[in-house]
Amino acid sequence: MKKSIIRSLVIVLITAIGFVSCDTEPVDPVLNDNNNNGENPGNSPGSNPGTEPGTSDGDYWPYAINNQWVFEQDGEANQPMKITSTEVVNNKTYYKIDHFFENEGTGDGFTGNATMLLRKEGGSYSVRVSVEIPSEEGMSITVSPFEYIFLKDNLEVGQTWTDTAEQVTSYEIEGSPIPMPDVVMNLTFEGKILAKDVTVTVNGVTYNDVIKISFKQTAVIEGMGTETVTNSEIWFAKNIGPVKSVANAGTDTFTQELQSYIVN
Q1: Phi and psi of 142, rounded to 5°?
Q2: CA distances from 210 to 65, 136, 200, 240 (A)
Q3: Are 117 and 89 in contact (CB under 8 A)?
Q4: What is the reported pTM?
Q5: Inter-CA distances, 207 with 158, 191, 236, Å
Q6: How far apart are the C-alpha atoms of 125 and 102, rounded to whole Å?
Q7: Does pLDDT of 132 surpass 60?
Q8: Which residues contact 150 (CB under 8 A, 6 or more apart)?
Q9: Where are the domains of the chain?
């Protein structure tokens, strides 16, 4: 039963961050030839681009209440990803975004929900993920939140960044005299700037000033020998936000393309 629950949590985790960290299939969007080859490194990425926020090179995901993005997947429009409010966590202001992903059942009778909070500091864009698992079969599950950087807009083409996080899952079984040990998942996130100042056409709309990134996530559950490696490629348009993501989770391939947006 425990392994079944842990498998469920892994699926919930991947679902929660699937938009920006799923395995990708090769894609070939319409890009122009002004791919930044590194001659224009951007504005002040910081002495250590992988960890320091530096100075932003623009706004590649505008955060304001009521901003929203509607993506199309498999020919159908998803629920709008909409910024609904702000929250302060550890003296930092975040923007809460609804429907960052579609909540999914795990197939084992467990369903997870996630709260996604977005934040920008300098040229670094991060997401804070809080996963809640409702009690099932007399078991309550608590999952610690984690945060990671998914975009650094001030790096030049070819530059990379790495972020790490730890997610701890605790279990409590009603009436059980034997406590269950925590499950610790170690996460590594690796991003790379593939192109800057390019043009991409999505759903017949041409977007300029686009950053294209690759993103790799490695998740390892301590003591279980379980490792999940996922990758993605995402396109962010200046003053608009994400416009396309092509991803693969296991044997499933997901393509999300921007259908409409409202940016205040």
Answers
A1: -120, 130
A2: 23, 44, 7, 10
A3: yes
A4: 0.77
A5: 22, 22, 9
A6: 21
A7: yes
A8: 20, 21, 125, 126, 127, 189, 191, 215
A9: 2-262
